[in-house]
Structure formats: C-alpha cells, structure tokens
Amino acid sequence: MTSSFNLTGAPNFRDLGGYQTADGKETVRRHHLFRSDHLGNLEAEDIQLLSGKLREPVRVLDLRGVTERETAVCALEGVTVHSLSIEPTIVQVLSDLTDAGHKLTRADVVGHMQDTYRGFVRQNTHRFASLFGFLLESSDPLVFHCTAGKDRTGFAAALILLALGVSREDVMGDYLLTNQRLKPKSEWKGLTPDVASVLYRVQPEFLDAAFDAVQQKYGGLEAYFREGLGVREAERARLRELYLQRK
User: Fold this and answer.
1) Any idea where the Tyrosine specific protein phosphatases domain is (predicted)?
2) CATH for 3-246, among 3.10.620.30, 3.40.50.1000, 2.40.50.180, 3.90.190.10?
C-alpha cells in the first residue's frame, strides 16, 4: 500500500510504491512515483524530510492552471518543474452559478464534479499523454501534483497504476485515500457547508465519470492508452521495467 510522508505543508504527499499488480507477481517500486497536493506551502521541516528521502534528480510535474502556479510556487530547491497546465474549470463554473443566484445542492455539485472529470478525458488527454512521456524518460523520482492532489492528480495516479497492471479495486482505494489525508473545508461563497464539503472530498462517482468518458470516446481503457495517451505495448513494457519489481 502507498505510504504518506506526513508533511505539514503537503498532507496529501504520498508514495505510489507498494501496490501489487493484479496477477500478484510484481509490486510498484517505492521511492520512484509520488502524488501530492501543491508544494508551495512546504515548511522547513517538510523540505528537510524530503531532501533526505528523495534521491536526486527529482522531477516535478505541475498540473495546476496558470494562476494557481503563480500564487503558490514550488518551495523545493534544486528540482526541475514542468508545467502540464489543466485549468480548474469547476471553480469558474460554480462561481458563475452562485453569482447568478443559483442555490446549488449536493447533487448539483456532484454533477459538476463529474463533468470536470469527463473534461480530463475530452479536453486534457494531451496533458496526461505528456505525463506518460516524462514517466518513460527515466526512473528518476517523479512528483506529480495539482492544488489539493485529489482530482487532476487523482486521475493521473489512477492511469499510472492501471498502466502498471494494478487492480481497479486498489486504484480506487488509492484514489479515496485523499479523504483521509485532507481536512475537509466547508466554506464556499453561496454554498451551504454541507454542499461545499463535496468540493474538498473525492467520490467513486467522480473517477467513474472519467472512465465512462474513456469508454464513450475510445471504446475502452486499452484503446485509450494506445490512441489517447500513446502508451502501446512497447511503452507498457518500458513502464513495467522502470517502475515494477518482482515480489
């Protein structure tokens, strides 16, 4: 199972290593792949801990939009940060609706979150394809993150684990771990606390919406890997070589 680092400034930072493949023969290597919330609030103790745990060189893939990046710059020194910008459309959608006087319900917000995840497939597949390009370059430690490390990062982590042969059950389990790592917030302009709390958690229905979009547009996950992400059998073999080890 994945292990967290208990960072004060990035509570959702965790190692994807430790998951076993569905056939039980291999496990994801530890200390190679890390998912996280943004790295702009790291405290001195966090940085010291990471510097002792991450072997160099460290690559950082930032999935945040332009404004998000500008307001919270990566606090780690000596790392190479690559921007794979996916703008947070849910923020604008909900702001426009509440500004127009709409009283949104939990079901409304869940529906808009599902639309966000469908958008990962319909509008942002090229970003996730770029992520796999970096994965295939080398096995140097790679940290990928967005702001909270739950939606854009959650879909990215799911794709990586599935490409490595981890079971759907374990993939969903990793996705839902975010709810244990992040402290829920209950404030959003124009939303009741109960409704606002939907934004700060993940639900199976969100990730399922992305995979439904994969099915609709590509006919299945394997076709999505090949045609959408450019991850064919040779690339899958390379990923297994870099990131899996025999039990």
Assistant:
1) 126-172
2) 3.90.190.10
